[in-house]
Amino acid sequence: MAALAGAFVLATLDILIVNTAFSSTGRELGGGISALLWMVDGYALVFASLLLCAGNLSDCVGARRAVGAGIVLPSSWQPCCRRSGSARPSAPWPPEVA
Questions:
Q1: CA dihedral in degrees (30, 33, 38, 44; nearest 10)?
Q2: Running DSSP on this structure, what letter comes out for residue 10?
Q3: What is the pTM of this model?
Q4: Most buried residue, 4, 26, 36, 86, by CB count within 10 Å?
């Protein structure tokens, strides 16, 4: 139960950080409200699809292992993200719709 509560706190903290960073990210990328909406929709889509995959993984390997992997794996990727350098996109933002 404590592991599930900790996972819930981590997910809530993640959403709080992402929502806080949206305004400065939108300014940095030079987009307006439409760019922010694209970011919110993209984040929600990825989060929902990963949540479905995690539920399937939990059915296959068990809830304890799935929650453990969900906490350990992203934490181990964090140093790689810090060393990645610039977060500037190579494509124009927001995407142009024809």
A1: 120
A2: H
A3: 0.54
A4: 26
